[in-house]
Specification:
- The chain has one domain.
- The chain contains five helices and no strands.
- Helix 1 runs parallel beside helix 4, helix 1 packs antiparallel against helix 5 and helix 4 runs antiparallel to helix 5.
- The protein is globular, with a radius of gyration of 16 Å.
């Protein structure tokens, strides 16, 4: 019975990373990419920014605004639990990853940091599956 109350460290790391690190960092990277890129890449970064903001609202906004029932609550629960919680983050990362395809660009470190975040998320997700 004691093991039931002690989840593996991989599960705790995945929960902490997906809830408190990934989306907030992705929001900052997307906002930065919106400001510095040309129009087409900025639109993709804006899509990533909006999906990330929806994800953050699903995780933190419902409790803050005391929304405990209704269709917004149902959608937010579905969105935050999509593919065990990682689907929301992968969907929010996809537009930013597509904007990284351009060959000659400034601030390549943004793409590198995004790649590191994605690798950590996928590795932690694979550990708990």
């Amino acid at each position: 019975m004691e093991a039931f109350f002690k989840p593996p460290p991989e599960v705790l790391a995945f929960i902490a990373f997906k809830k408190y690190i990934y989306l907030q960092t992705l929001l900052l990277l997307s906002a930065f990419r919106c400001l510095i890129d040309s129009r087409s890449e900025a639109q993709l970064a804006l899509a990533s920014l909006l999906l990330t903001a929806i994800g953050l609202f699903a995780l933190f906004g419902l409790g803050f605004f005391e929304i405990y029932s209704g269709p917004l609550r149902q959608f937010s629960l579905w969105w935050s639990r999509f593919a065990d919680g990682a689907g929301m983050m992968l969907a929010a990362s996809l537009p930013l990853a597509l904007s990284a395809i351009r060959l000659h660009r400034r601030y390549r470190w943004v793409d590198g940091l995004h790649a590191v975040l994605l690798i950590i998320l996928i590795a932690l997700w694979a550990m708990i599956m």
